[in-house]
Amino acid sequence: MSPRLKTLRKVLNPPIIKGFKPYGPEVGKNNTEPVFFLFEEYEALRLCDYDMFTHHQASEFMGVSRPTFTRIYASARQKIAKSMVEGRQITIEGGKVYFDSDWYKCEKCKSNFNNPEREKPITACPLCGSEEVKSIEIENAIDDKCVSETKNICFCPECGFEQNHPQGVPCKMQICPKCNISLHRKTTVIC
Amino acid sequence: MKIAITSTGNSHDSTLDQRFGRCNFFVVYDTESKSTEFIPNPGLNAEEGAGPASVQLVASRNVNKIVSGEFGIKIKPLLDSLKIQMIVLKDSEKKISEIIEMLNH
Ligand SMILES: [Zn+2]
Ligand SMILES: [Zn+2]
Questions:
Q1: What whole-number distance in Å separates Cα of residue B47 and Cα of residue B15?
Q2: How many contacts (CB atoms, under 8 Å) link A and B?
Q3: Which ligand ends up closest to the CA of A109?
Q4: What are the pLDDT tens digits along chain B (105 aa)?
Q5: ipTM score of complex
Q6: Distance CA A100, CA A115 (A)
Q7: B79 lies in which domain range?
Q8: CATH code where residue B94 lies
Q9: Number of domains forming the structure of chain B
Q10: Helices A66-86 and A55-62, packing angle to 10 deg
Q11: Of B52, B56, B89, Cβ closest to residue A111
Q12: To the nearest whole angstrom, how far is the Cα of B103 from the nearest Cα of chain A?
């Protein structure tokens, strides 16, 4: 039987802790049930409030739509508030996520490959067996042949709104009709 | 160990298909018995969902690795979660026989 396929959300790094415990004289008197925090909620919070990415960027990193991202993020904030106000413990646990694996390249056969067994380090190329393998940083994952192309489109980093770039007017002067923030020039990477 | 390779045709002289979900054939190579099996891609003409259907096919053959020219953004998380290793080779001239030779390093 083949494994069931689920919609998964990308989490770059698993959290380093399993949860939080409240302290103080009132703790544990009434609300003893912990708040269950999902990995994707942790990731949404990390991307937005720790790494300071916009919701639009964060939703792309996690491979989910903007509305889905907004829902995950809202749920994360609501749970933190609940645990603080009600003095509940937070337990970070599963959810529909996967941990993006590390990628490597082989200098000999020029192949790229990932490491699905995160615990075991990569020592040789799975294709040609060469030991000349290098880890690829996410920033450098796009190879040299790729060029970034500036398009004649301004977009809103918050909601993704797009409009044609007006000739001779800086994008920053354009304001998103929904979010009231300045627009940016759109660039795409072509390989 | 079993390794899947995306192929443009059904012979050892066929070349590596650069598309994972829409490749013509999957070659399943068994490194122990040295046997090869050519499986036509059932999702080839599917309107959508060709990628996940292909993942399901290779997963059902207990493949540990897949060699292809690319894996779409919807495919990577699926294969990652199934712990199937993705090997990306951007060389559309490579013959299946040559890839098998490389795997026998
Ligand atoms: Zn190699
Ligand atoms: Zn906006």
A1: 24
A2: 67
A3: 1
A4: 999 999 999 999 999 999 898 899 999 999 999 999 999 998 777 777 778 888 989 999 999 999 999 887 678 878 887 889 999 999 999 999 999 999 998
A5: 0.91
A6: 10
A7: 2-103
A8: 3.30.420.130
A9: 1
A10: 100
A11: B89
A12: 5
